[in-house]
Amino acid sequence: MSKDRIVLVTQNKHKLAEITSLFNEYKISFDTTDLEKLEIRSQNVKSIAIAAAKHAYETLQRPVVVDDTGFFVEALNNFPGSYAAYVLQTIDCAGILRLLEGEKNRNAKFVTAVAFCDHNHLEVFLGEMTGTVSQKPSGKGGFGYDPIFIPEGYSQTYAELSFSEKVRISHRTRAFRAFLEWKTHIPDNP
Amino acid sequence: MSKDRIVLVTQNKHKLAEITSLFNEYKISFDTTDLEKLEIRSQNVKSIAIAAAKHAYETLQRPVVVDDTGFFVEALNNFPGSYAAYVLQTIDCAGILRLLEGEKNRNAKFVTAVAFCDHNHLEVFLGEMTGTVSQKPSGKGGFGYDPIFIPEGYSQTYAELSFSEKVRISHRTRAFRAFLEWKTHIPDNP
Q1: Which of A180, A186, B36, B56 is a Cys-bridge partner for B64, taking CB atoms 3.0 to 4.6 Å apart?
Q2: Which domain holds residue B72?
Q3: Chain A: nearest CA to B41, how far in angstroms?
């Protein structure tokens, strides 16, 4: 195991599955870690990812990648935003649907920030997907808010898409692809 | 202005009004500050208050008091918990009531942690008030979730009580009183 290999700081198996297929495509390998991602309190996923990447780099002294995703519902003043994970654990998708009962504006978006930190770099990459919140949960794929999110240009929820289709189009993919493109084109030893 | 006077780290005017009357009772004076309270992401108000007090002490180099309050609704898996302020800014009391529509279990509690930090001490004091979430908002007093919280043993919401009655019984008062009792009984120069 080389000390130059990237460490991906997440324990979420669904995320890992999505990300692994992308890294493979770019022929970039990575290790996982037991280190928990530092979570600062902020409404900005970019700041959260940057703080977590700095902390992981300082702790592990290896190149690290950390991502953070927010889910922003327009009619709810962008709730749950960067507290998406906590809200999922408590009131869940059912809570979001209940808060939107009778609401015509169902616009929502996912935003992922991917932060990379090593000895020479601290970079952050964003990926976004706009769409709408469905009337009821549908589909068994994906995780998190996937059963209630219909991406723009689609009539199905993220959870109804096939794994490969979701990975092809998702907010997370967009952010990781931006990172992987950048990583592929920087010199190894700047 | 003495460097030994306590600095209270809050910009919330409602809180300040409640706390000032308590400090007066104990003949302990304090200064305010523009310093923003550090907010770590945690579901534990005690940890949040301690981290904020340490940070404020390190920044100001004066004795500091910081409080943090969570609002825990039993039927919502303790949502909004320590994210009470963020949830108020987004879905507000109306969101909590909507999430509880048709729900029989309306148990809820407020928990305040007050942390004190100076050169010699790092102490934390807790105050709790159990009660229920009302069917609709009532009353014009107080702030935050006060219009929808009926403290145990009462038939009115916090917001329907007089200012002095709320200050007499509240979760915040219990935590600050614990602190003020302690502060009154420790030697000035240990």
Answers
A1: B56
A2: 6-185
A3: 5
